[in-house]
Hints:
This protein has one domain (3-143). 76% of the residues lie in helices and 0% in strands. The protein has seven helices and no strands. Helix 2 packs parallel to helix 4, helix 4 packs parallel to helix 7 (129-143) and helix 5 (91-116) packs antiparallel against helix 7 (129-143). The chain is globular, with a radius of gyration of 15 Å. The mean pLDDT is 86.
Amino acid sequence: MSNYTFGGWLMLASIIPYICYLDWKYRKISNKSSILVFALCIFMSFKVDSSVSWAIVCVAVCYILYGLNVFAGGDIKLFIAFLPAISYEYILYVVHLIFLLGGAVVFLIYSVDYLSKSQAMEKRGVPFGIPISIACFVGVTASL
Length: 144
């Protein structure tokens, strides 16, 4: 890993906790955050064997999931922003990890709602930006 790639990886590692915090607290992922992640991933993509066809498939699947109200627009933008820096051989692992971590987040929020007799999950939704950020960061790290 070159110094430039490590610098990009380190900046990405410092942005992800901020994105996760905003998604947990406000359930929003800003466009500025997604653009910054995209710029860093484009910078790091020169070292990665990525595939345009896999990216198109991922965007199509994201569009379908957005249409089914599984993910919100900010979640989709964040996932697409990470795609250039993830090698095509790790894409399916990353998607599986997103759903695994997302299921854990849903279980955690549902359990807290059930025990506290509140309905926060129904009112505020699920912060899928957290599993997307973590899984994609793992994918970027594995791709480097």
